[in-house]
Amino acid sequence: MKISIKRQYFIEQLNHCLKAISPRTTLPILNGIKIDVSDDQMILTGSDSEISIEITIPAEIDNEEILEIEEPGSVVLTGRFFVDIIKKLSGDFVDLETTENFQTKITAGKSEFNLSGNDSNQYPLLPEVNDADSLVLSSAVLKTIINQTNFAVSLSETRPVLTGVNWNFNKDNISFTATDSHRLALRRLLDKTFNTEISNAIIPGKSLSELSKILTDSDEDVEINLSQNQVLFTYGNMRFISRLLEGNYPDTSRLFPENYETKVSVNNSEFYHAIDRVSLLAREGGNNVIRMTVENNNVELTSNSPEVGTVNEAVNASAIEGEDIKISFNSKYMMEALRAIQDEEVTIEFFGTMRPFTITPSESSEVVQLILPIRTY
Amino acid sequence: MKISIKRQYFIEQLNHCLKAISPRTTLPILNGIKIDVSDDQMILTGSDSEISIEITIPAEIDNEEILEIEEPGSVVLTGRFFVDIIKKLSGDFVDLETTENFQTKITAGKSEFNLSGNDSNQYPLLPEVNDADSLVLSSAVLKTIINQTNFAVSLSETRPVLTGVNWNFNKDNISFTATDSHRLALRRLLDKTFNTEISNAIIPGKSLSELSKILTDSDEDVEINLSQNQVLFTYGNMRFISRLLEGNYPDTSRLFPENYETKVSVNNSEFYHAIDRVSLLAREGGNNVIRMTVENNNVELTSNSPEVGTVNEAVNASAIEGEDIKISFNSKYMMEALRAIQDEEVTIEFFGTMRPFTITPSESSEVVQLILPIRTY
User: Fold this and answer.
1) Where's the DNA polymerase III beta sliding clamp C-terminal domain (chains A, B) (predicted)?
2) Contacts of residue B90 in chain A, CB cutoff 8 Å?
3) Fold that domain A256-371 belongs to in CATH
4) ipTM higher than 0.90?
5) Statement: B2-122 belongs to CATH 3.30.70.2740
6) Among A5, A144, A178, A333, which residue's CB has the most CB atoms within a 10 Å radius?
């Protein structure tokens, strides 16, 4: 292998690739990035066996030369270290040349590195994903969906399926659900369907979190393909593959109550900052519990901690309906739920002190956030 | 105590004050910030008993009202938590009111916090520092001096005096020395003297590092006063007091050799980046050792590590004099030494493979960085 490649572009692609590499891998070769050079392109691969990222670099982009190939070939080089070297070199282009035993010479300016590489035949093959049926979403929409649900996945391995987001392909919509059994985040893509034989897929939260770092807010297409065990996201010159979680996702549809007892509408950002202030004291007091009181057409947030003090926030509500209520909840869950709603006004519906309550945009049913209250007496 | 204060200005002053507060204090009241309000000003005090910071806030600055005093008084409030509250409140002004038992009510907008405060009489008195004789330096110069020396103090408590920077008041200059016994940083203020009875002061590195975060690059004066055990820096509305280290600082003047065997001049920034690249491999190989070779009028940096590979950097030297030499050193020390020199060109003088070498600006003797080589054979 002997090539010359535009350094800045190479760094960006390598950085994407690194997102799949974990320092805690059990297979040493997976610490590396695989570089495959054919006659007309280079393919970079990084993987931690849960996530794999494959990036194709062409010789030219918009008539600008990116990659000059003198001799095809392939090698695996230690990921993070190799990328650090490319970053710190000087000059517009960097040259790579592999000699015997996968020794790789990296030169740019007055610098010459000689690294021990590995045989790319030792690198595991990526899983095959059938790309017959595709679901297509824009990068911005997919990124938003991930941000609106992924924070609510469980961090505990007690029930592994809860560490993922459940993508449900319904007859007339697609829904995305995450829950750690204390709160739940639901996003619906109304008027969008995916005709596949698979009725749902549970995608690991960790994979979605890495994917969302790569996605931009653009309207560029992301093509999504599913097989029994894997999901493939194709985005620009990148293929992002994640394994799926096995097992049955709990039926969460029964969790959503009907007929609220109390309903309050507030400005999202104002309410968020009020919760943020009250939670300061709640946190200092050693828990995150704050209390919300709806009484005499007033809404108030309070928290108290015997050693530290008390706090009181009056909340501006644009509408209050139904019964008075006093209810306690975890302020962190409330703040994450509010952040996941982009709308200016949100509506909170309560169904009694001990039953889960919901937070939704006042004008849409695309997002539903559900939180279990905390018993404080 | 009952006051109203401009929130943004208050936050800035509190942030300065926090720099003196350590979460690991043994005296619980030192977790707090002392607030003293007299008829016409407020004084904030933070301390960890090593460093104390005292800030005076007047009622007006440039005819703009900063502080409105309704009732003088004083209280101690938990530092970090109190500052977090002030930061998260809304509105331009925040009101503080102390009632019985040092309960303090903080109000702004629709928020009301009630915090348990402490009696300010329990707060330790700050040490007195005689301010008869002052050394005056500009903020920018003092900040530079700290940055050029403080990185070289010892982090080990084995020889406590080495954890400080030695300020030496000589007959015709002032010198600042730091060493961890592997390398030494010396800065001289030529043509500047300080006529005091004290011939030197060892200021803890930690204090200088906090002070340097507060100092700006302006030419505003910093007044420095010394007593036997304390140093006081007066800067704007702030008094920064640090204890001094006790003990005798070693005589470092004998360390500087004369009559170099080899002398090399290089561009500071180019050389720094070359060292940075070579050190990548040195670090990956598990140590920080790199080798410099001066031979046949060429300068080369190399490093190798059997498992990882080798690296080779040709260095552009603007002048090479004297004997050929091969010498090994810690790349981290070299990079820190180069960063401490602001000049574009630096000169490195070698006195043999096993003796310390020096790095200085090519055109000045204000800064001398000295590094002990590493024996590699």
Assistant:
1) 254-375
2) 273
3) Proliferating Cell Nuclear Antigen (3.70.10)
4) no
5) no
6) A178
